[in-house]
Amino acid sequence: MITLLAATTLKEHVSPLRWTLVAGGFIGTLVILRPGGGAFSWAILLPIGLVLTNAWFQVLTSKLAQTENPLTMHFYTGWVGTLIASLALPFVWTALPSWEWWALLCLMGFMGTVGHFILILAYQRAPASTLTPYLYAQIAFAMLGGWLIFSHVPDRFSLIGISMIAVCGAAGA
Q: Is 94 a domain residue?
């Protein structure tokens, strides 16, 4: 989605090879989702909505990084995100069982903050369509987190799809 939006809205050049790799990654996504199969339901619309929202966010960040101060951008996006997330607190708040949970949440927030700042700096130096393949590393970390936290191991088709996405992303990088 980011490559498609970068090509259409930012007018970035995307080579035919990169389009082929993007298509391969999309096919890998379809292998994971298996439309028409048991894993496909209306609940899949939430992650699809998140992908679209994140893609617009990345493209907007790429565009603003060309003209704005990275610290100013990071400050405002961080506070806007905090404000929006805080609006949901009354509906989802539960007491955390121990201080370790608070420490993990703070660590997660800190790592996300550092990662976003580094991404802003990267967008100052390279176009969005070039940086997008590096974002595929999120798949490996999500899979690792799912295994460590929830004891969930992806099935064979999911691993095939993940592999297709990873190979196409690495080749695009």
A: no
